[in-house]
Give the backbone structure.
Amino acid sequence: MKKLFFIVLCFAINSFSQDSKNLLELKEEIKSVQQNPSLEINKVIQEKPEKKKPILGILYSLLLPGMGELYADSYSSGKYFTVAEGALWGIFTGMNIYGNWQKDKYKSFAISKAGITTEDKDEEYYSIISQYLDIEEYNDEKALEREFDKMYPERFFWKWNTQQERKEYRSLWLSSEQTFNDVRFVVGAMILNRIASAINAVRLVSAYNKRITEEVSWNFSVGISKPVNLPHSITFNFQKSF
């Protein structure tokens, strides 16, 4: 505890001595200005902002469109990519929910109306039963075409009572399939949105780096003015140059 107190005390003394030194230096400089009114004190601070990396702008945009523009300090254009991403995710989620809802509906309809079981049934099966009235009609056709390997055994049984029932089922099946097909376009739009955002981010990062290639400096000056018949005064000037 004593060591810690000693370290803190040393640090405080050092900081105070540094501040005192700076104040003494400024006092001496002002004193010199008073002796020579044409003399100015100039303090120049150089600042060079760090350049940004285009690859990071690309990665941020691919992760979430608009973040690359935010990285380039230009989110005013990036916000549109972020909004578009949110809208596309909303559409994607809604379409998947609707497609699965329709899928459950056509399966339930086939169970109650055509007498099917869902065990070991693939997507092709649900497509085929929408085109044939029953399993016998389908197997007869495959036998005539000599495609015996495509014929269904009895456990794949189905039988629609009327053509109207089959058409109603097919309408539900098509609705679900079309929705899932349209989801692909939404996914494609998400990919394009990311690519467009990444390209825009690279452009903005390049523009940002170009802006900071020139050196930025601040010039701070202190002087003494001696107006006629008036008291002397100290003047301060602050100038920013590019």
About this structure: Residues 42 and 221 are 4 Å apart (CA to CA). Strands lie at 41-47, 216-225, 233-241.
